[in-house]
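Q: I'm writing up a methods section and want to include an example of the input and output format. Could you take the sequence below and give the corresponding predicted structure tokens, formatted cleanly so I can copy it straight into the document?
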Amino acid sequence: MRPRRRGIIGGPAAAAALSLLALILLLAVPASARAVSFPDVGEDEWFAEAVQVLSDEGIVQGRANGSFRPYDSITRAEYAVLVSRSLDLPPGVSHPFTDFASGAWFEPAVAALFEAGLTEGVSPTEFDPYARVSRQQAVSFVVRALAYRLSIQPVEGLDLTLTPSQVEPWLQGFPDRMLIADVHQPAVANAYRLQVVSGQSDGRFYPLVELTRAQSVGMLYAALFKTPLPLTEPPTPVSIDPAYPDASVGSRGPEVMWLEQRLSDLTYRPGPVDGVFDERTHQAVIAFQKWEGMSRDGVVGFESWVRLMMATRPTASRSGSGVWIEVNKTKQVFLYVESGTVTRTLPTSTGRSYVYRSLPYTVQRKPIADGPRYRALYLNPGNVLAIHGYPSVPTYPASDGCVRLPKWDMDDLRERDKSNPMIPDGTKVYIY
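A: Here is the clean output for your methods example:
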């Protein structure tokens, strides 16, 4: 059984005693045993101490291959488990949520948080367990957890009370503070005041960026395993600048990782969510700009950032069951549709002057590339037109009639051809 944690360390005497105990234990343990437990967490990483402590406590665990994957995003289910373990809550048994199966691995933690009054879900009956956690959502969760801990273990001089008039001054150091949702502003202000969170290297808070595993552990460690140290003065005010820096091919950083994850959630297929703006990300941005009716330059500037924050998934032009393909000539996008829901939105380039029929085409599969028509899928009637990969997919109609896609997208679409094809023979293709 995992031992109960001490939680927040309170008072100088307690801190000194624990420091002495830690020193004795440190000297008694071989250096190799004190090393960070995960091969992808270096001892000089800012989050290494937090990962080590929470790992020793049995709160965080590695992936199947033993890695920690510090820059992976974290889901609401995973975060609920971390918070529940950090508070040492007993497994819960009751909750109102119906959007996950009974007996799910995270259910006891979610129920425990609900019973403790620490979560209400995203609606009265939905917890949304597989959604990723944003930085502002995580901060609100952590501050609630800290308040819960303090209600059980008060710490002298540690007060979470902030009046509405006190919230704004503690946020005035973030140039993107206007993007912090009203409901999360008090928690972010408090977390900054208590030095649980800070801005990124450019001073922005990035409230909508998905939380990473490293950041989740760092927040929990600062709030629940150390004594938060309140600042006495709010930060120096800076001008409001809600836009993230322009992003284009070659850009890197947390805003690019958020961009990639957001594009992926919206079905635009940017490739690995790794914080690197590569050509796949570039083409996914173009597909997004095409669908949204924006300038098709592949650069994420102010308008694109705002649209991304507000956008919803593309929608199909028809309903029904099964799989079909829609090619929108005006927007120059390819939609892969499953039972009426668009699951892939890809950039395409159709014929310059080709007249397509109004009735649907159907796919006749070709097993190999046909000259420059990479992994082509020929369309009936006629077996002349094809959907195929091509090195060049301009933002405008440029082919002789075929539907061009980036070659990596054709690889994805045909990856399961031998076992469970995504585009079976006879799949209908609507070009309009």
